[in-house]
Amino acid sequence: MGPPKSSQFWLRTRKLAKPDSIKGEALVCFCVLKKDANGDVALAAELKKNVARDLGKALAPREVVFVADIPKTRNAKVMRRVVRAAYLSEKLGDTSALENPASLDEIKRAAAAQRA
User: What is the CATH number of the domain that holds 29?
Assistant: First the structure.
């Protein structure tokens, strides 16, 4: 998701759609950064700009959230419904297969910061 210049800073991304009063849904992108990368406003803006350039403005993320890890199962599958539920403050449902529960706390903190 982005040209090599930008992707040198992150290991993986996950995106989700959140409700939006104007568009119906807006894209939120969760990025796991490499150890030496700094997840700042400039990097988030670069990601948004590159996605808009490569895929079109309509697909550019509304928000970019930098996290240490993304919730996964023991088989390394991303638990997308859990990411969405944590970010939107919904019920998480069954999380018994979740390998890294601390990742949910980080997503919840990021969501609270976005709402503040």
Answer: 3.30.300.30
Q: Is 24 exposed, middle or buried (0-12, 13-18, 19+ CB in 10 A)?
A: exposed
What domain count does the chain have? 1
Give me the domain span that covers residue 26.
4-115
Q: Look at the pTM and tell me if it is higher than 0.85.
A: no
pLDDT digits (tens, 9 = 90+) for 24-79: 888 888 888 888 878 888 988 988 998 899 888 888 888 888 888 899 999 989 89
